[in-house]
Design the sequence.
């Protein structure tokens, strides 16, 4: 997959099979669109192209509205590389760009710059100034500018339409297993391991304190989670405390990951935690002995649920 940072970095194709959107999280619905895109490109002898944007358009158009995201640009690139996509264009999104009329977006960007001959879009997709462009617009302008358009219907899981918004809601309520089902891959938190207060190692549960790389990353609801830690390409069974640590007097939210049956020196190194299940809520214990007892139970539960 070739990554182009801006439309100016892209050379017009003879036969582009393209789609556009934010694709935050690259969830099951996105994957269905991209799968169809790649298949269509192979069928017609063209090249598949995704035009996406950074920062997220809502960050620019609604700066006062708090929006946490499922994926950074780096994470999005890694997820998209797995889809078989030929080209990824990451276009800087500005207020000026947002004022592009839908007709100009189609003619100048999709047709003249990208070279689209086939356009594949998701259900209820809108584009251009004030989101005025729609599937109907595309069907109207397709014959004029020499491209056809295909709309992918909403992907249902348990009769619930998949969307980035619903995944954010699931994570915010601690339903990481539901988020995993919607995403088609584990939701992950990654960043540099920084020094903590080192209380965990005094009770036999040393933890890696992760400082997230991406400031807009959505952090799931407070709780203890079972999952996998990934370091330098190796995965380790792990559990994490996300949020406060009232037993040791900490009210600051943090991400503390304990590697089960592994001991590594991780300070200043990158670590990823893949969330699979929420084990329990955050609880205030009467001292470190009670906390240690519960952590042993958490460890056994993690091993039972995920070791297979």
Sequence:
């Amino acid at each position: 997959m070739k990554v182009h940072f801006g439309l100016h970095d892209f050379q017009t194709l003879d036969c582009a099979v393209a789609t556009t959107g934010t694709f935050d999280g690259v969830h099951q619905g996105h994957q269905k669109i991209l799968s169809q895109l790649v298949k269509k490109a192979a069928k017609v002898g063209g090249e598949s192209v995704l035009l996406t944007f950074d920062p997220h358009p809502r960050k620019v158009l609604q700066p006062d509205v708090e929006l946490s995201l499922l994926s950074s640009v780096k994470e999005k690139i890694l997820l998209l590389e797995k889809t078989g996509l030929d080209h990824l264009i990451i276009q800087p999104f500005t207020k000026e760009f947002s004022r592009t009329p839908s007709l100009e977006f189609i003619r100048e960007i999709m047709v003249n710059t990208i070279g689209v001959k086939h356009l594949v879009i998701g259900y209820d997709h809108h584009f251009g100034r004030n989101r005025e462009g729609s599937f109907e617009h595309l069907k109207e302008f397709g014959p004029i500018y020499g491209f056809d358009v295909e709309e992918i219907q909403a992907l249902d899981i348990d009769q619930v339409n998949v969307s980035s918004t619903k995944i954010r809601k699931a994570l915010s309520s601690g339903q990481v297993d539901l988020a995993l089902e919607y995403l088609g891959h584990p939701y992950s938190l990654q960043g540099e391991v920084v020094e903590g207060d080192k209380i965990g190692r005094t009770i036999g549960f040393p933890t890696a304190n992760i400082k997230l790389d991406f400031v807009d990353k959505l952090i799931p609801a407070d709780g203890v989670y079972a999952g996998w830690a990934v370091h330098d390409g190796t995965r380790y069974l792990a559990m994490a405390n996300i949020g406060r640590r009232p037993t040791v007097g900490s009210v600051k939210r943090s991400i503390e990951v304990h590697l089960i049956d592994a001991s590594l020196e991780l300070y200043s190194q990158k670590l990823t935690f893949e969330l699979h299940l929420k084990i329990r809520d955050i609880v205030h214990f009467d001292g470190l002995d009670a906390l240690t007892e519960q952590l042993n139970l958490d460890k056994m539960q993690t091993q039972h649920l995920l070791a297979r």
